Amino acid sequence: MKIEQLPTPSYVIDQKALKQNLQILKSVADRTGCKVLLAQKAFSMFATYPLISSYLSGTTASGLYEAKLGREEFGGEVHIFAPAFKDSEIDEILAISDHIVFNSGRQLEKHLDKCLRAGVSIGLRINPQHSTQGDHALYDPCAEGSRFGVTKDQFNPDWLEYLDGLHFHTLCEQNSDDLASTLAVVEEQFGEYFHQLKWVNFGGGHHVTREDYDIDLLVASIEHVQKIYGVQVYIEPGEAIALNAGYLVTEVLDIVENGIETLVLDASATCHMPDVLEMPYRPPLQNGFEAGEKAYTYRLSSNTCLTGDVIGDYSFEKPVAIGDKLYFEDMAIYSFVKNNTFNGMPLPSLALMDETGDCQLIKTFGYEDFKGRLS
User: What are the protein's UniProt keywords (predicted)?
Assistant: First the structure.
């Protein structure tokens, strides 16, 4: 079927765009010898893992469930980081993980003996206290009071006897100039320890597949660390892997008039695209423009009872009618991984679009998926 024939709401993953992103990331790995991992927290549609795994070295997980998914469906290396690990889960985590990264010295020391017996590669997250996020404190792991990573003052060189690597993750949707400035601070604070390590993980937030991204600077940064310190470099982007590689298809259910014409959709910001409210984020819309730019402006909202469940104001060249389909773009990342069923809203179906434009429904959801989360 074609995209316009899919039930709504549906997420559609564009495999052609996904493949183009993967080719860019693979070129970075080929040029530098670094290893690129899929950060599953941003994108975990495992129907695409056979394709992604042919380009990347493995996955990174934020907890037990993502680690299991990476091991079962992706293969390759499985890396895991969490602010803290539960005693009831640590044995299973160590059984399926290749790298484990601790967030604090206390966590490292607590689980050290089990890690050594399991033979996993042990890492520690560091915090260079170098913010590059501007006003977006919500996404700044280096903000004052951040719970993420060990600062220079907290670092104990005695840990190096057990550590294979250090991990820093300070970026969010950023270019390589921010990586370069961060790396300079990391080297100043922790570089003396790098010679005793096997690997350094640059974390995620690298928008490598964005059109204006400076790939040469990324390559130079990776090559610098590998040459100077003799370590393996990892990067673990999530967004860059599926950036601009997906759609959310929705239908107009009604039009409400109260000062502005509001389109009531069967997709929801709070349920299906929460970054719209959290970041905030304005998703691109196919054939949609800024409010007032074209002749017909509408407010796009949802079918929930939350007054603020508004996606944004968009204008169109032609009037929109009840029953029309709208296609939000860049909806592969941080979308279905954050879904919820508030108000009993149905979860969108999942579909794949091949390189000819043909779509295949991969999974649909119903009442039992809603009920199964309750008691």
Answer: Decarboxylase, Lyase, Pyridoxal phosphate, Spermidine biosynthesis
Instruction: Say whether pTM exceeds 0.85.
Output: yes
The sign of the dihedral angle between the CA atoms of 23, 26, 30, 32 is positive
What CA–CA distance (Å, rounded) separates 212 from 226? 25
Give residues with Cβ within 8 angstroms of 24, minimum separation 6: 208, 209, 215
- Kindly report, residue by residue over 1-23, the tens digit of the pLDDT: 999 999 999 999 999 999 999 99
Alpha helices in the chain (DSSP H): 15-32, 49-53, 64-69, 90-96, 105-118, 176-194, 215-229, 239-242, 269-272, 275-278, 367-371
Which domains are assigned to the chain?
3-11+246-331+339-371 (2.40.37.10), 33-241 (3.20.20.10)
Per-residue pLDDT reduced to its tens digit, 92-108 = 999 999 999 999 999 99
